[in-house]
Design brief:
alpha/beta, 8 helices, 6 strands, elongated, S-adenosyl-L-methionine, transferase
Length: 219
């Protein structure tokens, strides 16, 4: 088995090496262990089968998730990520959160997303201003990168102006008239006043299919 630690902060790397050397952190015997000093957003895993367990910088949560679940050719089998609870709630659409570009993108790439642990701010020293959550992600085995890109392009267009009607957002991005979109919406059982957040992933998939039949070329 192998274990790779990714850390950009040189001071933290020095602390890690010191604690491992002093026996404060024990690496199981026989483990192929190494520390890679790099930006996680530039890192490409050497193995095709791997799992990610991470405490990440909260301000780059979305870029990290998109990097490993959509951009890389080989996605992790599973991920266990500590993140800001508000972001975790948005991904899982709990509380008052509706569908969003982030939640739909994560759902498209995974078979399962669930909260493993809620971590109140009091558990950190010093205590931050936000609560945290550990989310578990299981990657979808059947994943077509080209089709995913088309799906994300459509969803991104739909959420480009969340307060506007979905039909207006799509008509401003794709070379299809509002009349054509109105016809598509009617076939999908959608009203022309519907907003992006009201569509679940199945409806977005159906919308993608109709758009591909007509013309799939962004302006």
């Amino acid at each position: 088995k192998s274990l790779t630690l990714i850390e950009l902060d040189k001071e933290m790397v020095s602390i890690l090496r010191s604690r491992i050397r002093d026996g404060d952190i024990i690496i199981p015997e026989g483990t192929d262990f190494n520390i890679v000093e790099t930006d996680v957003l530039r890192y490409i895993p050497a193995d095709q089968d791997y799992t990610i367990i991470a405490n990440i910088p909260y301000y780059i949560t979305s870029p990290i998730l998109f990097r490993f679940l959509h951009e890389l050719d080989h996605k992790p089998d599973e991920m266990l990520i500590l993140m800001q609870k508000e972001v975790a709630d948005k991904i899982r659409r709990t509380k008052w959160y509706h569908n969003s570009y982030l939640s739909l993108a994560m759902e498209y790439a995974t078979e399962e997303i669930r909260e493993v642990l809620s971590v109140p701010r009091e558990n950190f020293i010093p205590a931050p201003k936000v609560d945290s959550s550990v989310l578990y992600f299981k990657s979808k085995k059947e994943y077509n990168k080209a089709e995913a890109k088309k799906f994300l392009n459509i969803v991104s267009a739909g959420f480009s102006a969340p307060r506007k009607k979905l039909i207006s957002n799509l008509a401003s991005r794709f070379p299809i008239s509002k009349e054509q979109f109105a016809d598509i919406f009617k076939k999908l059982g959608l009203t022309e006043t519907v907003r992006a957040e009201e569509l679940g992933i199945e409806k977005w998939g159906e919308l993608k299919s109709y758009l591909q039949q007509i013309a799939y070329t962004s302006k």
